[in-house]
Write a structure and sequence with these properties.
This is MBL fold metallo-hydrolase. It holds the Pfam family Lactamase_B. There is one protein chain. The protein has a six-stranded mixed sheet with strand order 1-4-5-6-7-8. The protein has one domain: 4-Layer Sandwich (Metallo-beta-lactamase, Chain A). Helix content is 23%, strand content 32%. It has six helices and 16 strands. The chain has 224 residues and is α/β, with parallel strands linked by helices. The chain starts with 6 loop residues before the first strand and ends with a helix.
């Protein structure tokens, strides 16, 4: 998988309705420890730890937990990660209101069971930058899948961590999944904005790696 050396995909698997579903959190090296990008489910944190160990890293190396958005498959394991690492939690302002329990997750009522709320230490209002060993990682607002969705762009590596702003299948980069996207028109505007960046490779939370970027994203935005 042709990702930057400082980026470590951490695939986790879930059995659902007789099939295995795979999700793609990842860790990014910095001079101060690891940034964990999305946390998976509570019951997949052990898989995250095993993936880190295979890369010669440890869960205790995580210093910052960064969420692309608030859905349970991204934030459900956050409480366990924070309990075990004391990581600083970063999310968009819109996502933070769900992650910390102020608002219920989408599609649920306030009394429904939900993942354990976690305080967000840094709520991002717009763009921001993280310093990493893969160069600066720009936080790019990519709303549509959810209102507060963000992606991470590494210009020095022409690399995108898309979250759910795009998907992949068998190495093919695709658009956001319409079944789970709240505002498809807005999501496609985000795809169009991403296509204007210099991206040649992409890691999607659903579908994994694709050796594609700007040109393919522009095609997706135009066709949809």
């Amino acid at each position: 998988m042709n990702v930057p050396d400082a980026v470590h995909p951490l695939p986790v698997e879930l059995e659902s309705d007789g099939e295995t579903r795979r999700f793609w959190p990842c860790a990014v090296e910095t001079d101060r420890g690891l940034v964990l990008v999305d946390a998976g489910f509570a019951h997949t944190v052990d898989q995250l730890e095993a993936g880190l160990a295979e890369a010669g890293l440890a869960l205790s190396d995580v210093r910052l937990a960064f969420l692309t958005h608030q859905d349970g498959d991204h934030a459900g394991g956050l409480a366990r990660v924070v309990d075990r690492t004391d990581a600083v939690v970063v999310a968009s302002e819109r996502a933070a209101r769900v992650v910390d329990g102020t608002e219920p997750p989408r599609g649920s009522d306030p009394g429904d069971d939900r993942y354990e709320p976690v305080a967000v230490d840094v709520a991002i209002a717009g763009e921001a930058t993280l310093d990493t060993r893969a160069g600066p990682a720009h936080v790019v607002p990519t709303p549509g899948h959810t209102p507060g969705h963000v992606s991470l762009y590494f210009p020095e590596e022409s690399f995108l961590l898309a979250g759910d702003a795009a998907t992949a299948a068998d190495g093919q980069l695709n658009g956001p999944d319409p079944t789970f996207t709240e505002e498809m028109d807005t999501a496609l505007m985000s795809v169009r904005a991403l296509s204007e960046l210099d991206i040649s490779r992409t890691l999607c939370y659903h579908g994994g790696f694709a050796a594609a970027g700007s040109d393919r994203l522009a095609d997706i935005a135009q066709r949809e």
